[in-house]
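Re: that chain you flagged

S.,

Sorry for the slow reply, it's been a week of failed gels. I finally had a moment to sit down with the sequence you sent. For the record, here it is as I used it:
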Amino acid sequence: MIYDRLENLAEYSKLAPEVWGKIVKFCRKCGEHEPELGKHEIIGDLVYASVQSYQPHVSDPEKLEYHKRFADIQFLLLGEESILCGAVEDGEEVKPFNDEKDIGFNRMPERWNELPLTVGDFALLMPGEGHQPGVGDPAKPVVKVVIKIAQECFL
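Prediction finished late last night. Pasting the structure tokens below so you have them in one place:
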């Protein structure tokens, strides 16, 4: 997991050198003009973004999500939220892993960390890293970008 300022995103290009430049370019465009809600292809099915608008929610002990194929880069265009992070293996399975949707859910472990996400921050969550995004004040709307990067893009 990486937690940093969006202005530093380009510094992580060694993680996935073949695709990182296009990811950074897409992020910069998001800063200049808010993209439409929905899916945006960056590199076919290997790298794509989902732009979402929603109300944050209170923490749910049954919703530690994880992925096997895709990493997430998550950042906000509006609002604030927290991402709760914990070890998947420390929480009991709640919903079996769905290979087609690349998502599974475990119970939140006793030990977890909170990453506050505001405009200008980003979190990179690798496959297998448990996270519960979207935690915050339901009265304060959020616009978020989630970039999905297939594991085979990483070195």
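What I noticed first: The domain at 2-153 is CATH 2.60.120.370 (Jelly Rolls).

Talk soon,
D.
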